[in-house]
């Protein structure tokens, strides 16, 4: 299983990773190696086998829909690269 | 002092033969003396550690406290520690000060432990050699030219070199057991859901599990007793009651049924490692165990299944690093997309980007069934192999890794060479069962770990088995030459 450089750039876009041409070339090789490695799965007969997503097969525990956390806005903003007036700042989205 | 076990130190602390401040100073001194060569710590919290030690001494002087009160330990830099830098081995988080505390570190602090610092690791726990850390590779204290294993390589090297009594680790595909094996210490990956994942920076959420790393099984039991148990902050944490891990240590092993999977002893296993594992099995026979060959037929498939499931979950988990709320942000982004893509490309290392892309591909439209769902079906086959085997035997034994620690840089050029080394550990995480690495000997002066795998929630049994072995062997008490003295 191998993928081309265009595939790599498409995957990188979906993953929100900026790749240079050189990066894309390297990842083309390493991703192809990994995809070849996992390709051996396709030869296994798994008809009728249910997918296993949680090893204990437990279901999601629910809790009452009540507020449990206090407001700690300033603590959380302390790690933000840019903030102002209690808000996270990002580059302009709408002109 | 660094060679003592937790029970002995706890006794000395209670009897006022030593204070926690003295003990903590001793370890801080050892870190400053030896860690320049090892690079096992990312952050050393000297002043905070001494304050915690003083507080522990105050509790002990009132005749209160428990076996962990005043004991200096270290935490893998993947556990969020409120107010203390938590990097996960990544440039992405090189300025991240968590506003909250993980359940594991909180419970260990509650028990009175002293935190010496945060240990080095493969970036976002992705790696088997600790060479993927933004903060530099960790060296194996038994031979500084070799790797300590990964991803909990810093924790393993620190404990092996006597820079901490014990440490926390996490294990998604072998990240506690393989470094424990390479560094000659004892490590336990508990059952999935035994220990809370709250405040652990997520890699692959259906596989991640925290556990203790220490010299002996007995010390691991003390650590696990504080770490394990239900936590409402982790929706996958089990409500199954914990056992008394310490009082179970001394049960006799007569009648124990050990299974040796033939797939663990085939091609690729180093012959010295194989001999050491078989010698360890003979010790168990002397202790009254019986041995039989078993089969885990789908073992080989654990590599492809793991390297689809773990990257898929990682690609989803690591989408939170977007340069908006925390972590690295690129300089002068021209728009939102530019900020996302450059912040992530600059903040993540090569292996992390590789796994994010593998996962993104496996989950993308048109490929989901062929990759992710297929891997989850194979995951069930692997689980069924263990379930059937554990109906015949009480525990399964084998090697942790095919070889001893390899040389730094020797497996970094081939993108999948390192993945193949995980063959004996991955299936345990896919099935969700507990497993340990226990020092079982040396091959050409490098440690070899015996893996002991058990049924769901059998941690007390595994610790008991390892402890009984450690009563008749001394592999776990050896100290590497570089760390002797002081």
Structural account:
- The complex is a heterodimer of chains A (95) and B (486).
- Chain A is mostly helical and 95 residues long.
- Chain A is built from three helices and two strands.
- The longest helix of chain A has 19 residues, at 21-39.
- The two termini of chain A are 44 Å apart.
- In chain B, helix 5 packs parallel to helix 6 and helix 9 crosses helix 11.
- The mean pLDDT of chain B is 97.
- Helix content of chain B is 38%, strand content 13%.
- Chain B has an eleven-stranded mixed sheet with strand order 1-3-2-4-6-5-10-11-9-7-8, sandwiched between helices.
- The interface between A and B is large, with 53 and 73 residues.
Key features of this structure:
heterodimer, A: 95 residues, B: 486 residues, alpha/beta, eleven-stranded mixed β-sheet, 11 strands
Number of strands of chain A: 2
Are there runs of chain B of 5+ residues with pLDDT below 50, and where?
A: none
Which parts of chain A are unreliable, with pLDDT below 50 for 5 consecutive residues or more?
Answer: none
The proportion of strand residues of chain A reads under 5%
The major beta sheet of chain B can be summarized as: 11 strands, mixed
Major sheet: arrangement of strands of chain A: 1-2
Label the structural class of chain B: alpha/beta
Shape assignment of chain B: globular
Distance between the termini of chain B: 9 Å
Task: State the distance separating the first and last CA atoms of chain A.
Answer: 44 Å
The percent range for helix content of chain B is 25-40%
Based on Cα principal axes, name the global outline of chain A. Answer: flat
Sheet-strand content of chain B, in percent, reads 5-15%
């Amino acid at each position: 299983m191998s993928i081309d450089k265009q595939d790599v750039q498409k995957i990188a876009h979906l993953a929100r990773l900026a790749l240079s041409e050189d990066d894309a070339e390297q990842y083309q090789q390493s991703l192809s190696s990994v995809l070849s490695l996992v390709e051996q799965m396709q030869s296994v007969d798994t008809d009728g086998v249910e997918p296993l997503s949680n090893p204990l097969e437990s279901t999601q525990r629910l809790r009452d829909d009540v507020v449990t956390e206090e407001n700690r806005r300033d603590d959380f903003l302390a790690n933000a690269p840019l903030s102002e007036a209690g808000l996270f700042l990002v580059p302009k989205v709408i002109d | 002092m660094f060679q003592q076990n937790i029970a002995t130190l706890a006794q000395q602390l209670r009897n006022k033969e030593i204070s926690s401040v003295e003990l903590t100073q001793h370890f801080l001194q050892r870190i400053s003396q030896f860690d320049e060569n090892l690079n096992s710590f990312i952050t050393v919290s000297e002043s905070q550690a001494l304050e915690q030690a003083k507080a522990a001494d105050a509790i002990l002087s009132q005749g209160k406290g428990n076996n962990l009160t005043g004991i200096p330990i270290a935490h893998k830099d993947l556990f969020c520690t409120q107010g203390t830098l938590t990097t996960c081995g990544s440039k992405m988080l090189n300025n991240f000060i968590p506003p909250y505390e993980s359940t594991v570190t909180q419970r260990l602090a509650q028990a009175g432990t002293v935190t010496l610092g945060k240990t080095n690791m493969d970036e976002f726990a992705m790696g088997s050699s600790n060479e993927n850390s933004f903060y530099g590779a960790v060296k194996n204290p038994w031979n500084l030219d070799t790797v300590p294993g990964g991803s909990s390589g810093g924790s393993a090297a620190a404990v092996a070199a006597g820079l901490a009594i014990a440490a926390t680790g996490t294990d998604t595909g072998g990240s506690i057991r393989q470094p424990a094996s390479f560094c000659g210490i004892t490590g336990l990956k508990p059952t999935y859901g035994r220990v809370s994942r709250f405040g652990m920076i997520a890699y692959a959420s259906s596989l991640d599990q925290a556990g203790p790393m220490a010299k002996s099984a007995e010390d691991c039991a003390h650590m696990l007793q504080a770490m394990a148990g239900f936590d409402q902050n982790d929706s996958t944490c089990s409500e199954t009651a914990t056992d008394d891990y310490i009082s179970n240590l001394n049960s006799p092993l007569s009648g124990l049924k050990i299974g040796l999977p033939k797939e663990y002893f085939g091609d690729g296993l180093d012959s010295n490692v194989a001999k050491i594992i078989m010698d360890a099995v003979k010790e168990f026979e002397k202790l009254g165990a019986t041995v039989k060959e078993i089969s885990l037929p789908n073992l080989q498939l654990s590599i492809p299944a793991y390297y689809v499931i773990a990257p898929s979950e990682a690609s989803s988990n690591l989408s939170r690093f977007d340069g908006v709320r925390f972590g690295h942000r690129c300089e002068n982004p021209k728009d939102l997309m530019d900020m996302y893509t450059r912040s992530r490309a600059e903040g993540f290392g090569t292996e992390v980007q590789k796994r994010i892309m593998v996962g993104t591909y496996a989950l993308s439209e048109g490929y989901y069934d062929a990759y992710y769902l297929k891997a989850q079906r194979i995951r069930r086959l692997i689980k069924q192999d263990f379930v059937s085997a554990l109906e015949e035997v009480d525990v399964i034994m084998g090697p942790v890794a095919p070889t001893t620690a390899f040389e730094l840089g020797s497996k970094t050029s081939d993108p999948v060479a390192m993945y193949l080394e995980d063959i004996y550990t991955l299936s345990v995480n896919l099935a969700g069962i507990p497993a340990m690495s226990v020092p079982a000997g040396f091959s050409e002066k490098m440690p070899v770990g015996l893996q002991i795998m058990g049924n769901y929630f059998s941690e007390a049994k595994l610790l008991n088995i390892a402890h009984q072995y450690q009563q008749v062997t001394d592999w776990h008490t050896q100290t590497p030459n570089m760390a002797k003295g002081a």
